[in-house]
Amino acid sequence: MLAIAIPQGHFDVLRNRITSGCRARGPSVFGFWQINAVATGLDANFEKRPLLEKAIEKFMTVDVLFYHLMHQPLEAALPALLQKCLERDWRVVVQAGSQQRCEALDAHLWTFQDDSFLPHGTKSDGFAEQQPIYLTSEADNPNAADVRFLVDRAAPPPLAGYQRAVYMFDGNDPDALGDARQRWKDAKSEGFQVTYWQQRENGGWERKA
Q1: What is the DSSP-derived secondary structure letter of residue 191?
Q2: Parent domain of 189
Q3: How high is the pLDDT of residue 163?
Q4: 9/99 same-domain check
Q5: Burial of 148 (0-12, 13-18, 19+ CB in 10 A)
Q6: What percent of the residues of the chain are helix, what percent strand, and what percent coil, each to the nearest 5?
Q7: According to the model, what pLDDT value does residue 61 have?
Q8: CATH code at 109?
Q9: CA gap 18, 54 in Å, rounded
């Protein structure tokens, strides 16, 4: 039996990552092992020890991406990035800087194109744990998301346990730029993998760092 201390708030994220990996690879590859993973006051039995050990090893490694909005607003840039996440079968939390902004994004993702929409929900919609994209102005993560977007200067919760964290900030706002620089320093100090992407005039992205 392997005992592993896991922060309570990230336990579901880790469990989903492990079980989805097991489903993708099949039991014939890993065999059956009983593992006891201990989160604060929470015990759960896991199978397939090699995959669990790899997940634990990578648990603290997060890819943190900074997207510098320069030529198009958040409303134009965000849907395409969310769509890419869904195409990879990633669940997403989008954390906005205010409840008002959260409600505006909620409406926008239903109507940003005439012939399509992005499936999503908020706390008021219910079934939060089932939402492929969950919108919030808080630090919650009820759908055990793989990716967390932080927009409009939202203050990040602890990011360990996510596969990716994505900051999107307005390059025309000096305060937002200052926040982004500090978040970059914070992510580097935590040992995360950080990249910086600058928006092109056509709305595409160019990696700068």
Answers
A1: T
A2: 63-207
A3: 95
A4: no
A5: buried
A6: 40, 25, 35
A7: 83
A8: 3.40.50.10110
A9: 9
Whole-number pLDDT of residue 53: 58
pLDDT for the residue 54: 60
CA distance 112 to 79: 8
Same domain, 105 and 165: yes
Q: Pairing mode, if any, of strands 63-69 and 164-170?
A: parallel
Q: pLDDT value at position 198?
A: 97
Could you list the mean pLDDT of each consecutive 10-residue stretch along the chain, which spans 209 residues? 49 55 35 38 50 58 96 96 97 97 96 91 95 98 97 96 96 96 96 97 96
Estimate to the nearest angstrom the gap between the alpha carbon of 205 and the chain centroid: 19
| Residue 80 DSSP SS3 | helix
Q: Is residue 116 domain-shared with residue 186, that is, in the same domain? A: yes
Residues 100 and 180 in one domain: yes
Rounded Cα–Cα distance for residues 81 and 135 (Å): 15
Number of domains in the chain: 2
- Widest Cα–Cα separation across the chain: 55
Examine the domain organization and report whether 51 and 69 are in the same domain.
no
Task: Give the pLDDT of residue 44.
Answer: 47
**Is residue 100 located within the same domain as residue 19?**
no
